[in-house]
Design a protein that fits this description.
Blueprint: H1 3-28, E1 34-39, H2 47-61, E2 65-70, H3 75-83, E3 89-93, H4 94-102, E4 115-131, E5 146-148, H5 155-164, E6 175-177, H6 181-190, E7 195-200, H7 205-212, E8 216-219, H8 223-232, E9 237-241, E10 253-265, H9 270-282, H10 284-290, H11 312-320
Parallel strand pairs: 1-2, 1-3, 5-6, 5-7
Antiparallel strand pairs: 3-10, 4-7, 4-8, 4-10, 9-10
């Protein structure tokens, strides 16, 4: 058995034991705690630790509920799980959220209409990572190369194709390599992957590790491609990765950015969602101590990239704190 598979199995067993213990404890106290399952992504990416931190706040502060971070295939699978109510909450990239709610792209002909927004968590600048020895000096050179696109039909794959289509590159023009985020970064280091387009916050530890090797570089987007992408996909905006953000990165990198959004399905109780919002914001320092990306979470930008209607519980909280009218 692979080490990663063994670790995953151990984590699943530990989570099962913890949930069982919580259930037994609640029964002994004569109360019945309910679970709020949170769809995240593979354990090698950012969504899993973010979801784990949210689940801890729920378990510690939302009366009668236990949070449970669920490892998944990422944004697209999370949208599907919300549609079938297999999770109550999920982290979804704004681009995937738009496609799922409009029945376009990877969700062609099958709208998921029961998703409601809570808050944007952080913003994902697209890092176009390429091996220096792969003969790629511009995005146009990605044709014919090995591109890590995450799990099949994941948000990573959707975003990759949205960006590459601005350069006339279709999925038929490159060799897709499916796998986890960690497998993508490992592949860039070993040469099994030539390209990985990583939507993540500036200063990402994984990107830092890759650029520190001196074997991987970042490619900029052209202004024309940025303008075209924003026009076609309004859930994205122009962004810049400042020069010197990473080792061996001397020039600023023009790119685009999307949002990572916390969403729920529409049958989650209004007061429960209100409590989740209230506790997340009132315990923001605890979230930041778990993951630096929570520094970007604030009520003023809570609706940035929110291409679905707010959940009534989230709307109630944001109106209460004066973030929306």
């Amino acid at each position: 058995m692979k080490k990663s598979s063994l670790i995953g199995l151990v984590l699943v067993l530990v989570m099962s034991l913890l949930l069982s213990a919580c259930s037994s404890s609640s029964e002994a106290n004569g109360s019945e705690e309910k679970f709020l399952r949170i769809g995240t992504a593979s354990m090698g990416g950012n969504f899993f630790p973010l979801g784990s931190a949210i689940s801890t706040i729920i378990s510690d502060h939302v009366d009668g509920f236990v949070g449970s971070a669920q490892a998944t295939g990422g944004s697209a699978e999370n949208a599907n799980f919300l549609g079938t109510k297999e999770v109550e909450l999920a982290l979804v990239q704004s681009g995937t959220l738009r496609e799922a709610t409009t029945g376009t792209g990877a969700f062609e002909g099958r709208k998921i209409e029961n998703m409601r927004g809570l808050t944007s968590i952080y913003f994902n600048e697209f890092h176009i990572l390429v091996r220096k020895d792969a003969g790629i000096n511009s995005i146009e050179d990605i044709k014919g190369k090995k591109v890590a696109v995450g799990p099949a039909a994941s948000g990573i794959e959707i975003n990759t194709n949205q960006l590459l289509e601005q350069y006339g590159i279709t999925p038929d023009d490159y060799k897709a390599v499916h796998g986890t985020r960690q497998e993508a970064t490992d592949g860039l280091q070993t040469g099994q992957v030539d390209v990985h387009i990583y939507g993540t916050g500036i200063g990402s530890a994984q990107v830092s590790e890759l650029l520190r090797t001196g074997e991987v570089k970042l490619l900029p987007m052209s202004q024309e491609a940025i303008d075209k992408m924003i026009e076609e996909y309004p859930d994205f905006g122009a962004a810049v990765i400042p020069a010197g953000t990473y080792e061996n990165q001397e020039e600023e990198i023009p790119t685009v950015a999307g949002s990572s959004v916390l969403v729920a399905h529409d049958e989650v109780d209004e007061e429960v969602v209100y409590s989740v919002m209230k506790e997340l914001y009132e315990n923001k320092e605890d979230l930041i101590s778990a993951h630096q990306y929570f520094k970007q979470m604030n009520t003023e930008t809570a609706t940035n990239g929110m291409v679905v209607d707010l959940h009534p519980g989230a709307e109630k909280y944001l109106k209460e704190v004066g973030a929306i009218k």
